[in-house]
Amino acid sequence: MNRRTAKPETTVVCGINAVATLLERSAQRVVEVCLQDNLGAKRLGRIGPFLEQTAVTVTLVPVSKLDELAGTHRHQGVVARIKGSAVLGEHEASDLLEQLENPLVLVLDGIEDPHNFGACLRSANAAGADLVVTARSRNVGLTPTVSKVASGAAEVQPLAQVANLARYMGTLRDLGVWLVGTDGGASQTIYNTDLRGPIGLVLGSEGRGIRRLTRESCDAIVSLPLLGTVESLNVSVATGICLYEAVRQRTT
To answer: Are residues 101 and 57 in the same domain?
Structure first.
């Protein structure tokens, strides 16, 4: 699954699984779905049920048109044009959280590798995170590589980019979100930390970790036990571990 800019006001999502996920979770953002005019019964059977449950416009086009829309990305005979970007502003993000009883938030501080960011978005979506928050100027944006690695999550996962991460973390606390940062040197581990209430899990880049102001904005600092010889985990791996520990506690 991949994404690229088709027109200034729209974005395209390519691939059967990515478009199906988009139709299931955010159909209101879809402007049009372009299907290969000789798609074939097997592929049509995979995307058809998702098209039938929405009122989205479907256009049959030759494969050359899909190639043009998708560029170098694999489309499997299916391309959706969607409205703008999935990125929320600070006020929109806060409005979203105010509507939730027990939000699970992922705060990422300075993730510059698009593969790591895409993997974090995929894990966040899989774990049911309500919101991912990043700094506008210190995090990679929604690039085609991010979208490809995220495998459909980049188009449906609520994501907020904020001007000042530490300041917005204060807003999260005002909204009742308890912020748990990660640091390899912390004596308290993620496993003996209560993650059942409104939680914001805060993770930084693999090299630098979370920055000083970000750390000072956390309510607690925890570690992930490293029992072997490695000194740190890839941030996307650490993100998945933390998110699913929160999921485990919330569902048992």
So the answer is: no
